[in-house]
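Exercise 7b. Backbone tokens:
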């Protein structure tokens, strides 16, 4: 009987040891995950700062070009076309898939991108991108 008790005690001790090891691994994994999250947040913050600087640079360039345009003699301007109409140049029309054509047709009928995305089982961002490209 004492042999079974000894074996049971040894098995229990081994089980507790392995449980302790698993617990330590879990804690280490959580620390690594938090470290990775922090690094990703830092990288995204740097990316955002870089993008802001790039946007500021582009805005300054556009403003400089606008100032040059205002100094230049005025040209006769044509009335602007309706930018809400979705037009596809004939050369590109052949390259569109049937889904893309259908998305443009639904937009011409007045559906918004959320409704089109639901009807076509596509992502809203994908629909928005396609509509912006052909607007």
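Sequence design result:
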């Amino acid at each position: 009987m004492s042999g079974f008790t000894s074996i049971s005690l040894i098995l229990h001790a081994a089980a507790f040891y392995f449980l302790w090891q698993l617990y330590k691994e879990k804690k280490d994994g959580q620390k690594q995950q938090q470290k990775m999250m922090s690094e990703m947040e830092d990288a995204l913050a740097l990316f955002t700062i870089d993008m802001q600087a790039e946007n500021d640079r582009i805005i300054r360039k556009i403003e400089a070009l606008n100032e040059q345009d205002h100094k230049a003699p005025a040209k006769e301007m044509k009335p602007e076309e309706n930018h809400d109409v979705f037009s596809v140049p004939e050369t590109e029309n052949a390259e569109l898939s049937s889904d893309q054509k259908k998305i443009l047709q639904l937009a011409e009928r007045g559906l918004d991108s959320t409704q089109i995305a639901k009807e076509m089982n596509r992502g809203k961002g994908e629909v928005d991108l396609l509509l912006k490209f052909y607007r």
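Instructor comment: Helices lie at 2-71, 90-93, 98-108, 113-120, 124-134. The mean pLDDT is 82.
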